Structure formats: C-alpha cells, structure tokens
Amino acid sequence: MGKALYETYPLIKEIFEEGDETLKMPLSKVILEGPDEELTRTSISQPAIYLFSIAIFKLIQKLFPAIQPEFAAGLSLGEYSALAAAGFLDPFEGLKLVAARGSYMSQACERHPGAMAAVLGLSQKEIETLVKESHLPNDLWAANFNAPGQTVISGTKAGVEKGIHLAKEKGAKKAIPLKVHGAFHSGLMRSAQAPLKEKVEAVSLLSGTAKVVMNASAKPFDTPQELKKLMVDQIVMPVRWQESIECLDQNGVDLYLELGCGKTLAGLNKRIGVKGETVSIETPEALEQLENL
C-alpha cells in the first residue's frame, strides 16, 4: 500500500517516518510490506490507512496549492482523515487518536465477537424495517447506508445470519457476509466508547478551514462539543454515507478527491449520482490527473 508514492515523493517518506516516530512503532514497514494479515487487524489497519491518506493529502497540498477543500467527509475511519484534512485535527495527534480508536475497537471485537454483511437491492427504509422486524435489538443493527440499494448490517453472528435470511426474503439481490474482524457500527462496539471518549475529550481541536460532513448526522457539525460527541457516537451508529454525499452535492461540490486505498468511494459517488467529478488518488499516475483539472 502506497509503495509507488513512497518511492516517488520524498514527502511521503518523511510523513511515514514521522508517523513511525509518533507511534513508536514501524507502521510504515507494515504499510509498505505487509503482511496482509497484519494490515487486516483493525488495531493496525486504522492508523495505517489514516497515515497513508494524510500523506497523500499533504502531498496534494504541496504539489497543487491552489486546491483548497471547502468540504470534507470520510467513511467510518476516514472521518478522522477528513477532520485532519479540514484542519480540525493536528495530523499526528489524529494519528495517535486513530491508533487508540483501533485498539479499543479491537478489544471490543474480542469481548463481543460479531459479523457484518453487505446487502444489495434493498432501500434504507427496507433495511430499517428488516432490523426492527428481526426482534433482535441486541444482535442486529443497520451499520452503513452507502448508496441506493447498497447497505451493510452488523451484529452478532446469529443476528447477521438472521438478517441475511430476512434480506433474501424481502427480495435482496445479494446478502453477503463480509471478511471483517467484528461488528463495527453496532451496539457491540459500546465497550469502546468510554475509553474513546476520554481520548477524544483530551484532544485539542484546531480552528479548521473547511466544513466536515459527519457520518452519524450526515451534515456539518456546529460546535466543538457536537464534533466530539459525533466522533464517539460514530462507532455504534450507522454511517449515513449516501446522505452525507448528497449533502455535499447539494452544496455545489464539483470535485471529489478520494484519498487512499482503491476506488470504492468513487464507485459509490457514481451510484449516488453526484454532479461533480471524482478522482481517486493512490498512485503517481492518479496525481497527474489533477494537473489537467
């Protein structure tokens, strides 16, 4: 992950090295070399993905100073990258916070094993009804509303199995278990909230330069207190991604930069039907696209 950018731009190497020093661990080695088993552990994947995303953002700032974000948003963990890009979090204070978040969520996964599943072909309302009709208030939750007809459910293994069965009964095109380490964005993450809240409350927020649309509310926050509450609530609440992107679209955003791994968010933007262009940045070749915008 990120090897081409690392080998091409010294700034990426500098940021990776500062990330290693911040966490007192060889995070950059794991980012660049793996192994994949290490990168899939939520306690490692969260700071790794965050650091890579922030490094790309800092590189764009250096190469294209005219590109200044007016809005930012990030899916789940990406919300922290968005807050750093928007100037509300110091990038490396954010890295420490994300590492703590990953650790607390990993511990919650061990205490309360769970599962997640992607459901294709049902609306948000149908998913909410499905969860209610399951009569499993402590076992099944709606976790992500990503795009029209693309949602994720989360909960105990039994709860998610029941959810998959109900989804198929309701006419879902697909209901597929996801390869994840736990039931993220569900009540099974509650044990991570108290320690995360303590860390979030201790963070000194900066003034910020752009508006951040938050996962739990699908709109920009108004006060520092609201921001901190939403950061903590997010791990047990559904990610309202479709509504978040629609908020950006309604505010006239005409260029979306997806920073990090893959093109998942670009695909969701297409499915949602945004009017603006989306560019996914994770390679030197992708960066060249910005020269023509």
Please give a structural write-up:
With 293 residues, the protein is of the alpha/beta class. The chain folds into two domains: 3-109 and 187-292, Malonyl-Coenzyme A Acyl Carrier Protein, domain 2 (3-Layer(aba) Sandwich); 114-177, Alpha-Beta Plaits, CATH 3.30.70.250. It contains 14 helices and eight strands. The chain has helices at 3-8, 10-23, 27-33, 36-39, 42-63, 78-85, 91-111, 124-133, 157-169, 193-202, 224-233, 241-250, 264-272, 284-289, and strands at 71-72, 115-120, 140-147, 150-155, 174-177, 211-212, 255-259, 277-281. The strands form three sheets. Strands 3-4-2-5 form a four-stranded antiparallel β-sheet. A two-stranded parallel sheet has the order 1-6. It has a two-stranded parallel ribbon with strand order 7-8. α2 (10-23) packs antiparallel against α5 (42-63), α2 packs across α7 and α10 (193-202) runs antiparallel to α11. The two termini are 26 Å apart. The mean pLDDT is 96.
